[in-house]
């Protein structure tokens, strides 16, 4: 089974469920209740990071891990296929956020700067990259039941960084504010891609040492 085939199989097993659809509806609610440009995109990134563990929960409930051990599919295909499936879900969440933002702005008669939305999307992707780098290795190594608390790791990591930065002055965040939109978008996309690649590679290495029962 190839990566693309497993990604389709994975999406079919957990995407068309109420537990997956409701968080996507939350993005629309945020766009309507908090009509601040970029807030829906932030909500989409948060939803995607939380839902990152949903496929692993489905594995344990449906005992799909045993099936993966029987099917002619490599551990690498499972990891990269699931990574691709999660990125597809992230893209769906981002598209809903953009559509909801556009509709709300149209109703309110507001104008949303394209650069602002681009920066918000890049920041959201960077957050997803961080989430994948932290969560995928843990969830693939020990599963959802024992590793579910890692879902909160990305938010805690950012909070810890901001606290340490304020206390120690490690990075001047004012430089980021003064940077151009192109620089911010490039940095966000770069960090996001790095997180996705690191998370997938580490997860593949750890998943190969796991015994599937």
Tell me the major beta sheet.
Answer: none
Number of helices: 10
**N-to-C order of helices and strands:** HHHHHHHHHH
The end-to-end span amounts to 20 Å
Over the alpha carbons, how many angstroms does the gyration radius reach? Answer: 18 Å
- What's the count of strands? 0
Low-confidence segments: none
State the domain count: 1
Percent range for β-strand residues = under 5%
Structure characteristics:
10 helices, mainly alpha, 213 residues, globular, 81% helix
Please explain how this structure is put together.
By secondary structure, this protein is mainly alpha-helical. The chain has one domain (3-207). It is built from 10 helices and no strands. It has helices at residues 3-14, 18-33, 39-51, 54-61, 64-70, 75-108, 114-147, 153-168, 173-178, 181-207.
Short description:
It is built from ten helices and no strands. It has 213 residues and is mainly α.
Lay out the secondary structure.
Elements: H1 3-14, H2 18-33, H3 39-51, H4 54-61, H5 64-70, H6 75-108, H7 114-147, H8 153-168, H9 173-178, H10 181-207
Helix pairs in contact: 1-6, 2-3, 2-6, 3-6, 3-7, 4-7, 6-7, 6-10, 7-10
